[in-house]
Amino acid sequence: MNPEKNEEKTNSKKEAVFQSVRGMHDILPKDGAAWMDMWNVGREISELHDFTFMETPILETLGLFEAGVGKMTDIVEKEMFVFKTRGKEDVALRPECTAPIMRSFLQNHLGHFASPLKVFYAGPMFRYERPQAGRYRQFHQWGFEIIGDGDPFYDAEIVLATLHFLSALGLKELRVKINTVGCRVCRPTYQKKLLQHYKANKKELCKDCARRYEENPLRLLDCKAQECRELLSGAPIILDHLCQACNAHLRQVLEFLENNMVLYEPDPHLVRGLDYYSRTVFEVVASDKPETALAGGGRYDYLAEFLGAGRNVPGVGVSIGIERVLEYAASKKLSIGRKDRPSIFFVVVGEEAKKKGLYLIQKLRLARVRTLESVGKKSLENQMRAANKAKAKFVFIFGQRECFEETIIMRNMDSGAQETIPLSRMVEEVKKRLR
Ligand code: AMP
């Protein structure tokens, strides 16, 4: 065969290999241990703080997010994956999970089960954003929600659970940026003041803010565009316009945080990009990378009403960006992920040994002994090399002779000592040595 032609064939084959959708990434085996560790830590912290797992579908009706997150927010206006089902229903891949959780709370009357209801969720969210470092179109969030109680105690509890989660993963020097966005009583007055401030310079606002000026003036405060940043100085802050109830609420949240030695930083420009927030809003950042929020949340006392409940159901929650957390941890060389050595590497030599080998390997695994193998490598040398690479504590060598004699060779990979043990005592002997 003509080698050049052959190469051409290989290249065109390469081009034809499917790629993941832009902005959506695979979690690769090299990162598997860190992800598993994160789930484990998350589960432990959730249990300690009494949050119960719940899950909602990835697909929801489009109207849920329009009503909950807000039609005029960036998320709903520009970032959702929306389509029609075959049944002509308008649906969206969830861009966040608080609205779905509240939907489920109302639909399933979860308020009857606990007061407040404390739940956690974990899973993929979808936003059609411009992909860049730490920003994906499919990303994962771990969320805590407390529904049914408006006490500032629970705002603080959400912040504390978030910090507990992040510090249990090894993240240090975290800061909490915190603000309030007021309530229906005080926010309109503040918004009026804000509009007065911007009125004279309205023409200088960026394109998005020109629109926000009319529809969502609070968002003028957290616009990242340089022209809008410049107009920020001298803008009124909501703290000067809070009603008594919101003022007291904020003061109590901060008191709870202080009592728990939480380093918080009042940020009067923090408003967050979702309409459902009322009163407390916060973000958690690493001190040395304050521009990237690892987690964000707040109170959403009007969300139930937005969703048609006909009444207010107080709630407060947070979502933690898992990719952001793991990427930050990796940049700090924090060792997230299981590092313990495998107990056994099982080497088989010959077809007969392989046949019986799987039975023995399964026996070890059923006895909860972590057992690795690489039977495809065939030769003893290659399998031993793999065992070394895996840093196994012990290697079992099972060849023709052992198969016939019903024994197995056990090699201690640290000392090099080797012994032959009867198969009938295999599990017992391993357990003794691993103790
Ligand atoms: P939000 O739901 O917007 O309050 O965001 C909560 C957290 O989710 C953020 O602090 C980020 O850590 C994470 N997050 C939000 N959007 C993205 C994205 N496009 N890619 C990766 N992480 C994200």
Question: How would you portray this structure in words?
Answer:
This protein is an alpha+beta fold. It has helices spanning 3-16, 29-48, 62-70, 74-78, 98-107, 152-168, 187-199, 207-215, 226-232, 244-259, 303-306, 322-331, 351-366, 380-389, 400-405, 426-434; strands at residues 52-53, 59-61, 82-84, 90-93, 117-126, 138-147, 174-180, 264-266, 278-286, 289-299, 315-321, 344-348, 371-373, 394-398, 407-412, 418-422. It is elongated and about 90 Å long. Helix 6 runs parallel beside helix 10. It has 16 helices and 16 strands. The chain folds into two domains: 29-186 and 242-331, Bira Bifunctional Protein, Domain 2 (BirA Bifunctional Protein, domain 2, 2-Layer Sandwich), CATH 3.30.930; 343-434, Rossmann fold (3-Layer(aba) Sandwich), CATH 3.40.50.800. An eight-stranded mixed sheet has the order 1-5-6-11-10-9-7-8, with helices on both faces. It has a five-stranded mixed sheet with strand order 13-12-14-15-16, with helices on both faces. It has a three-stranded antiparallel sheet with strand order 2-4-3. Residues 96, 127, 129, 134-136, 139, 141, 273, 293-296, 319, 321, 323-324 line the site of adenosine monophosphate.
What labels would you give this structure?
single chain; 435 residues; alpha+beta; BirA Bifunctional Protein, domain 2; Rossmann fold; 2 domains; 8-stranded mixed beta sheet; 5-stranded mixed beta sheet; elongated; disordered N terminus; binds adenosine monophosphate
